[in-house]
Structures are given as structure tokens and as C-alpha cells.
Specification:
- This protein is of the alpha/beta class.
- It folds into two domains: 353 residues, TIM Barrel (Alpha-Beta Barrel), CATH 3.20.20; 31 residues.
- The protein is 37% helix and 13% strand.
- It is built from twelve helices and twelve strands.
- The strands form three sheets. The protein has an eight-stranded parallel β-barrel with strand order 3-4-5-6-8-9-10-11, surrounded by five helices.
- A hairpin with a 5-residue loop joins β1 and β2.
- α2 packs parallel to α3.
- The longest helix is centred in the C-terminal third of the chain and has 21 residues.
- It is globular and about 70 Å long.
- Bound molecules: NADP nicotinamide-adenine-dinucleotide phosphate.
- The site of NADP nicotinamide-adenine-dinucleotide phosphate (NAP) has 32 residues, from α9, β11 and α10.
Length: 389
């Protein structure tokens, strides 16, 4: 879809008042459908016009991040939407922002938020998420074999120093609500253990789509009154090459999704998003990106109505019975290999299985010593012990 096609779209708007809202513990209401703004590798040139079109069509929740390298483009889109009368002011929007890994050192947190606010053209952000549980950076647009030798696991002591800075900015009125993204259960248990009621995260953004449902983790967050929104809710068909693996399958090509789409007379994309809205008693939301005006509109419509019957939701979710096995296949699109630290032994599953989560820097240092000693023994004793990490 070209920029001019976006500019020429005459599609009828969706009334934002009809979009499902999710109550956050602090009292704010968050639109369940968030318009994703990441796709720097192929859609950056389209992002301003696509975001303006999304706002014109009725999207009121924008999902942004410093890592997407386009906050000022989103800011331009917001300013243009106000100028064109699509919204009265930025107060009509709910904006999610994210603290990038490279800015998690305590001294960098406040300047990072300032830069985000300035680029977006707002004086406060509705929801500020800690983007990843660890401060590991990768270069923008890097390949899947990128490794950062300074990468580290989750160290709770360090995370809490970052979290304190985020909380200070909330107390200063620059953030309305705080949350996490990509947090695992162990990381969240440690965080919740050490914060007061007022300082808890209200939301966690995580990968969720029909072939990667994360139901147990989702239910744990729900039980803690943490609202979950699922990113890559359509299965991210144009994700970067570094996030494509032989084991992956396409959510929108799954036979169950296709059959339900035919039954409902809607697109396969709409089935994925309707399921995201209706599953688990409708307590969560989705983040979806589109540049095609028709898809921008259809995707928002999924949060205005119950497209799926309870039986259709069950055919996707499953309930453990023979009748309803569901289609979850644990197909993680962002494996996160570019964030691996040396002791993961190149196994991306360590990022997600909580086998290397540390309370203190001292704990991790002791683990590292032991790991390195083990490596020496391995390389000098095992027949195949010198495989690289
Ligand atoms: N917190 C995190 O760590 C994290 C990680 C990844 C992503 N995110 C957020 O999640 C957002 C969504 O992720 P994503 O963009 O990778 O994946 P996605 O929303 O699942 O997929 C977007 C792609 O799907 C296409 N599409 C959109 N609607 C469609 C429909 N109804 N039918 C068929 N195709 C459709 C779009 O094509 P067209 O553009 O041609 O319309 C676009 O290529 C990002 O933009 C970002 O805001 C967050």
C-alpha cells in the first residue's frame, strides 16, 4: 500500500467509544486494541501516514517504543491528526511507550523518557513499559547471529534500580501507569515480592497469538491483576529475517483459523484478533500493526464486537479434552537469540524458562565462575566439548 493510497482512503471511521476498554488497577481505561508502530525495516516510510490513518479510523491506543526508532514519526502523526481534526488533542489518545534496554542504567532512565516525551510531543505517557527484563542491546536491524558479549541475565538487584527510576518518574507525573514487557513468571514474582501495592506493574505486554498462547503465564498475570496485551497477534507475517525459523508456522494459515474465518465470513486476521479479545473472559488486549487501510479498520473492528462464538474460541484455545485440543503449538516468533548471554550455552529457551534468574550481581558472578570452570573441564575432557557458545 503506497503513501498516496493511505492518504486517499475514504473508509468509514469506527466510533472509538465502541472499542472495548480494559480497566487498569489505577483507574485508567486502556483501549484493548493497540495500534503497533514497529516495523522499521520495511514500513518506516509508511509509518506516519499509516498512523494518521489509524487515528482517523478510530484507533486511540498507540503502541510505541524507543527501540522502534520512530517516536518522532509517531509524534508527527499525532500532530497531523490534531491539525486535521481527527482528534481534539493528545489527551484523546492512550499512548504506551517503552524504556529501551540500552537506557536501563539508572542515570539513563529519566533522559530516555524525556527524549520519548519530546519526540511524541506529550508531557506525560499513559503507560510506560520496561521493554525487556534485562539491559541487553542489539544493533538496530541486526541479523539473527548477532551476539552481545556484555549481555547478562535477569539480575533482580539491577532491575529494581531501574524500576525505582521509573517509579520516580511516575511520582513526578510524567508517567500515569507503569508496566513490564516480556517478563517471565520468576521475574514477576520477584518484582511483586518487593514492591508496595502502589508500585506494582499494571500491565505486561508479551508475545501471544493462536499458535503461541502462553496461557499459563497469562493466567498467572491475570491472577495478579496485571492486564496482558499480546503482540504479534496476527503472527507477524513480515517480521525480520532474524525472527524466522524452520519450526515456525503461520497463524493465519492454520486450518482451524481458516475454517472459523469461513464460518464467520471474516478474514483470517480478524479471527486471530477476535480470539485475542475474547479469550480468557476478555480480560486482555492485542497489539497489531497494519499499513493497509482496510486492514487497519478491520483490525480495530475486532475490538468492538464479539465475532466468535464461545465454541469457536474453544476450538482455538482448547480445554485439554479430546473434543477441543486447541491449536496452541508454542511457536515463539521472537526467540530472542540476539539477547543471549554467554552462560545460556546458545540455548534461547534459557531466556524464557527461568533457569537463569538471579537475585543479586554477586549471585550471578558466583554462577559465572562456576560455569567457566565447568567449561574448562568440558573442553579438556569431552570428545566434543569445544563446541562454541
Ligand atoms: N513488546 C515487545 O517486545 C514487542 C515485540 C514485537 C512487537 N511489538 C509490538 O507489536 C506490534 C505488532 O507486531 P508485528 O507488527 O510484528 O506483528 P503483527 O501485528 O502480528 O503483523 C503485522 C503484519 O500483519 C499484516 N496484517 C495486519 N493486519 C492483517 C490482517 N487483518 N490480515 C492479514 N494481514 C494483516 C500487516 O500487513 P500490512 O502492513 O500490509 O497491512 C503487517 O505486515 C508491533 O508493531 C509493536 O508495536 C512489541
Amino acid at each position: 500500500m503506497s503513501e498516496s493510497a493511505l492518504e486517499m482512503s475514504q473508509l468509514e471511521r469506527v466510533d472509538p467509544a465502541t472499542v472495548r476498554q480494559l480497566p487498569l488497577p489505577g483507574g485508567a481505561m486502556m483501549p484493548a486494541a493497540a495500534y503497533g508502530t514497529f516495523h522499521s525495516d520495511w514500513a518506516q516510510d509508511l509509518m506516519k501516514d499509516a498512523t494518521v490513518e489509524a487515528i482517523r479510523l478510530g484507533w486511540r491506543h498507540l503502541d510505541t517504543a524507543r527501540a522502534y526508532e520512530n517516536e518522532s514519526i509517531v509524534g508527527d502523526a499525532i500532530r497531523e491528526s490534531i491539525a486535521k481534526g481527527y482528534i481534539d488533542s493528545v489527551d484523546d489518545l492512550f499512548i504506551t511507550g517503552k524504556l529501551w534496554n540500552g537506557h536501563m542504567a539508572p542515570k539513563d532512565v529519566a533522559p530516555a523518557l524525556e527524549s520519548t516525551l519530546e519526540a511524541l510531543g506529550v508531557d506525560k505517557i499513559d503507560l510506560y513499559l520496561n521493554h525487556w527484563p534485562w539491559p541487553n542491546v542489539h544493533t538496530p536491524g541486526c541479523g539473527g547471529d548477532h551476539r552481545n558479549p556484555d549481555a547478562v541475565p535477569y539480575i533482580h538487584e539491577a532491575f529494581m534500580e531501574t524500576w525505582s527510576e521509573i517509579l520516580a518518574l511516575k511520582k513526578a507525573g510524567k508517567i500515569v501507569d507503569v508496566g513490564t514487557s516480556n517478563h517471565t513468571r520468576a521475574c514477576m514474582e520477584l518484582l511483586l515480592r518487593d514492591v508496595s501495592e502502589a508500585d506494582r506493574p499494571v500491565a505486561n505486554q508479551m508475545e501471544m497469538h493462536p499458535l503461541m498462547q502462553s496461557t499459563d503465564l497469562r493466567r498467572y498475570f491475570d491472577s495478579e491483576n496485571i492486564v496482558c496485551t499480546g503482540y504479534m497477534a496476527l503472527g507477524s507475517p513480515r517480521r525480520p529475517a532474524r525472527d524466522r525459523f524452520k519450526t515456525h508456522r503461520s497463524d493465519m494459515e492454520d486450518p482451524v483459523i481458516q475454517a472459523i474465518a469461513a464460518e464467520c465470513g471474516v478474514s483470517v486476521g480478524s479471527v486471530c484478533l477476535a480470539w485475542a479479545i475474547q479469550r480468557e473472559q476478555g480480560r486482555g488486549g492485542f497489539v497489531a500493526m497494519a499499513t493497509n487501510p482496510g486492514r487497519i479498520r478491520d483490525n480495530l473492528m475486532c475490538a468492538t464486537q464479539e465475532i466468535l462464538s464461545p465454541e469457536q474460541v474453544l476450538r482455538i484455545s482448547g480445554d485439554g479434552s479430546d473434543d477441543f485440543p486447541g491449536i496452541d503449538a508454542d511457536i515463539r516468533l521472537i526467540q530472542g537469540q540476539v539477547f543471549l548471554w554467554p552462560e545460556t550455552d546458545s540455548d534461547w529457551r534459557v531466556l524464557w524458562d527461568d533457569s537463569q534468574v538471579f537475585e543479586t550481581r554477586e549471585n550471578y558472578a558466583a554462577f559465572k565462575v562456576s560455569f567457566n570452570a565447568h567449561q574448562v573441564v568440558r573442553t579438556t575432557t569431552c570428545f566434543n566439548g569445544d563446541r562454541s557458545l
